[in-house]
Amino acid sequence: MRRTRLTHAALAVLLTIGAGFAAGTAPATASAASSDGARPAKAPASAGLLTALRHDLHLTKAQAERRLAAEQRATATEPKARKAAGSSLGGTWYDAGAGTLTVGLTPDAPQATVRAVRATGADVRTVAHTARELTATQARLDKLNAPAGVASWHVDPRASTVVVNVVAGEKADNDVRRFVERAHRAGPVTVRHVTTAPRTFAAGTVGGDPFYTGNVRCSIGFSVYGGFITAGHCDQHTGAVYGWDRSYIGNFQGSSFPDNDYAWVNVGSGWWTVPVVLGWGTVSDQLVRGSNVAPVGSSVCRSGSTTHWHCGTVLAMNETVNYSQGAVHQMTKTSVCAEPGDSGGSFISGDQAQGVTSGGWGNCSSGGETWFQPVNEILNRYGLTLHTA
């Protein structure tokens, strides 16, 4: 059922694991797929992956290798550092320049807390507000009815503020001005201007592969046992889902959009699931070995059926994105480009699944930003288990 181009990593997995892909095989536990400690990647820096990072992040080969290794360390350190920070936590992010995880602590943090955080290997920076204060501010904004001229809002732990992104051409709009005034009353808020409003990337089970439903083409996110996950806005409520070759795959078993942007599709009729994300010839097909969350500042790559493979960095987490169809919450913003048809496709950091493509602005010729819905939220919502190698 799979295309012949799915040969490199995918075929290797089929040959080495064989019947492990068959329906009914006992899956790895969900807790193992999302445990606090990142499992070391066996091959985190294939030649193709390094080439993509070098191109999109303007790095040398040595810089790309060092960055991947440092990001793995930061991802493993983050849960321990957050626990050590306790109530003084202001947020965490990856500092690409220093190659370390940075933890924001409020000025009143006890010295014992500072020492405990540093003992995890993280750097410390003083910030004005706690993560709890910033999260509460964002939650207040989530209850407001945002006009179309407000693109999104998210917590920026480095600046210790909630950033509200307003479309520059709409900043004088009365509804936008009222929203901004109410936002400032909600807590520490900073307004920034963006060039355009976000849109979803839907057009007209391997991550990045196309699928069709109704008159829409989207992209597969990640294989789970029994099916695959993708973007909720791809569900046209027509029932049947068809694969790249237009043969029947299955049906949407659950979806949510707006408020969330996730869905899952069952797989049958001769289709099967594999823990692979397509590299589209830019990189070798990537094996999926878990879903540990990469911190803000980490590199991340996306696979989709329109623009294939592109990389960038994680810019923000837990951002609320105000699409024309309604707000979507708890999204992760990236500097990766995308275009219509890429919706639902895979975001992956090293060999760790991050999320499914939702929408953004711009394109892959002039650049842009793209949001994804985090994978672990989808797995938890539907009680699914990620198919890992």
From TrEMBL:
Keywords, comma-separated and alphabetical: Disulfide bond, Hydrolase, Protease, Serine protease, Signal, Zymogen
Gene Ontology biological process terms, A to Z: proteolysis
Region (Disordered): 66-87
Family statement drawn from the similarity comment of this UniProt entry: Belongs to the peptidase S1 family.
InterPro entries listed in its UniProt record: Pept_S1_alpha_lytic, Pept_S1A_streptogrisin, Peptidase_S1_PA, Peptidase_S1_PA_chymotrypsin, Streptogrisin_prodomain
Name used for this protein in its record: S1 family peptidase
A GO CC annotation given for this chain: extracellular region
Cleavable signal peptide: 1-22
Pfam families in alphabetical order: Pro_Al_protease (PF02983)
Gene Ontology molecular function: serine-type endopeptidase activity
Active site: H233 (charge relay system), D261 (charge relay system), S343 (charge relay system)
Disulfide feature: C218-C234, C301-C311, C337-C364
SUPFAM superfamilies, sorted: Trypsin-like serine proteases (SSF50494)
Alphabetical list of CDD domains matching this protein: alphaLP-like (cd21112)
Source superkingdom: Bacteria
